[in-house]
Amino acid sequence: MEMEKISEAGASMSRIRNSTGHSMTSLQKISLAITGTMERFFYRWGFIVATYPYRFISVCLLFTAICGLGLVNFTLENRPDKLWIPRDSAFAHNTEWLRDNFPSPVRQSHVIITADNVLDPGIMKMILEIHESVKNISVFDNKKWEDICFRLPITKFDLERRRRRRRSPTNSSHHEYDAFFGSAFSGFDEFDSEFFTSDASTNNTTKGGDVRSFDPMLSLPEDIYCSIIDNLDDACWEINPLELWSYNRTEVESLTKEEIIQVFNTRLISPIFGRVVNYTADLGGNIERNSLGQIIKAESISLKWFVAINQSEVRAGRAVPDMGTGEVADETGLAWETEFIYLMDSITKQMPDGVNLYFATGRSFGDISQGLIFDDGLMLVAGFFIMFLYVSTMLGKFNLVEQRLMANKNRHCVSIISFIISYGVGSACFLVYGPVNKILPFLLLGIGVDDMFVIVQCWNNLFPDCLSKPNKLSIPERMGMALKHAGVSITVTSLTDIAAFGVGASTILPGLQSFCVYAAIGILAIFLLQSTFFVAWFALDQKRVEERRNAYCCCIQYRDDKFIPNSYSQRSYAQIFFDEYFSKYLFTPVAKTLVITVTLGCLATTIYGNTQLRQEFDPIWFLPEGSHLSQFLEKREVKYPGIGFPGFVVAHQVNWTASFPQVEQFMHDFQGSNNIYEFDNWYEDFKEYSNENFGTKIPEKALAPSKFKRNMGKFLYSPAGSKHRAYFKVAGNFSCGDKLPPVQMVLMPFRFKYFHGPEEHIPGMHAVKALVKNANLTFNDNSDGHMFAWSTGFVTWESDELITAELYRSVALSLACVLITIFFLLANLRMCLLCGVCVIFTIINVGGFMYFWDLTINMVSCIDIVLAIGLCVDYASHIGLAFMTCSGSRNSRAKQALRNIGPAVLNGGFSTFISISLLARSQSLAFISFYKIFTIVVGFGLFHGLIFLPVILSILGPDPYPNAFSSGTEYHFDEKGKTVEMQAISTRSIKLEKRSPDDNSNNGEALPVHDPLIFEPASV
User: Where are its TM segments located (predicted)?
Assistant: First the structure.
């Protein structure tokens, strides 16, 4: 009987609709089919969830636990080449190839000391104290510097003899070698005593060469020389000017300023390593010279320590990743670096006035980043708490029963559970977790609170006074009706968000791709949980309310006559504001003109800002200003301005003997490039060594492979060539006295000059790559020979080159997907375009204000802008959908849309801002960019959604859906299904008044009939 009346009511509604003159187009029929199906589904879904809330809550928790199992595959990825470079790029391939074939054997710690003049005895004593303090650092099982350092061969010699020779005005550089070898090989004088005198040096000089080509191996019997080499002690590799005095405290404490200046301005042989050293390269700042060109004053000096990576630990799989770089390290080395940081921090605080110390280690970036995440995490928790208070205030009513504490707590649980699902499913799919994924909780929190406010707003619109005016419908029936109205809206916004991030997942940047996939999974989880988990808890909370139980202690229950809600708590002040104040003045001609003028003015201003927006990124921006690493990098940039990123030219399977003419030209061109600061050229040293000692004529005359192997074998164990030996990888074992086995790979270190921004480093990178590509060397037969340039700076520079185009591509595709999704769900081209205009205006405003707020286009801001599209579309689409479901004049429909959904949109946007507001004090680039961009998005998104769009809709708004009713229209039917009266209501619901004498179960109360979209209209 009742269903028949409902069906007749539906038919009557169709007749009423047709009588209004609305003829439905094909698009409108599609709209009715889509939205009608969705509303029917959501009604039934809300009804069944509210009927069995505990079952659905249990299923949600079980599903979360199952998804959480995917976290066993959780992969943290910090390596920049794995995040910000396309997987198929040459740099990514080359980097991985280098990791596999030539892993780094060392990690570096660095100190810069600044003073008015570092060439001072007091500074030298201070450096000695630092050196000895570092030697005494102790970690696991009392391991010290000598146990973990990277070691190089050491050759001791008589320092006093060396110094006497150095001070002699007639001394020449070859006498330094004479002194060096005269001491080092003093135990073997009987084999060739003349070698250690000036005769040996003279003999070398008569060959017309530089002393760098002098080789005692050619004067001593080979077995004797190699025996000496094989039995040499080794020492820790430390770049420190005090090695010139062998770190002898007595001598260092007796130094005079004149002697220090003389030492630094003389080409010397290290008394420890036997190599030519020139410590003027480690001086920086404002450098003064005397009339002879000697450096007499410098403002800074650089010190370095090199820690060996325990390769046996790495091969055994016991290495640990550096959390800052993602590169492998051993546990002992990382622990030593931690103690080094503590030591330098302590020394820094003890520096005398005018002297400063700046330092960095391999783990500095990771430690600082992790510290920032912890600090920002505390701010996130504080932001959650503040938002919890705000949501509690806006969600419930100001009395002890109608506060929605339970619903609010479980709304936060929805965000946490969606986070677990997102990371669990993503990890199960082997998606990596990058640093920017740390902002995902903020995103899920913001989107989740929007959907919650929409659901609650629809409930409040339908059933505003549950205590003072009890409703005869069951909670499941009412929940079904509320979700029927809210479901379409949150579906529209969720699908547009998923579409935006789904397109973002098509990016070529793995880090952005990973984030977008995680975000899309999280948003889908939010949507499902809001319509299930939250609805179930809301139904339970509503049962508590109607049983008059205390919101803070449900054990306390009030009697009906003892608890009557105060009138103050029963008023919706947000709706009163929108209905009686905001809408009253917004739609006046003056206000409309002002809104359009302000919108166009902001648009013009931000278009200018977009034209000035720079594409720039500097890794130092990730660091807080006061951190030791940021201070070090800033000081290095100031004191050593010409020094840029280090790099290598990697030559694999090159046929060197067949390529000497091309190698000669390449080395000349590379060394002379304006983009290169320095180049460690093994070829020039070898050419001079071979030509001087063996009479070869490289490159004019070809060198037989057998002679090349013999000469190179001797060269790499000579004083001139030993520094290059570590950069050669050969097939098989190679030791002193052996011919060089086939060369598999050679690394040639270089350093870029300092570049100022992408307008310099991108052309510089391409110029260097072009030089290497055009070298035209000959490779070994049947090999995969290749040659490439590689630098730590390439990961930033290549992403700089890609990021602008990738940003525009992602924004354009995301906008297209969002508009297509809105079009199919709203089924109205004009509304789709108007919502799209709001989104486009917001994105333009974001780009312009990024310039005014000192932000640039980079990897982080690119992600934030993609997020912005997904967030700002929510504000406009909610208002657009509400406008389409009301009929009447454009003004009245716009007012009704603001009244019905405006408070939810405002609360959602404002609560999102509250959750991120504390990040304004963050010192992390990722969080600061996120805060600034999302503040702009929320501000302009709310402006366009709640002010500009309603004004435009009141002027250009499309016709309503054919099933829409006038604002406040309610149709009543008698028992025969005929219309008997119409009266004002504030929702799309209609009521069927049952007055049949045969059915008095309702006592004459009006029963709700589902929206006409529940029925299949006759015209469809």
Answer: 54-76, 378-401, 413-433, 439-462, 483-505, 517-540, 585-608, 807-826, 833-853, 865-884, 904-921, 933-956
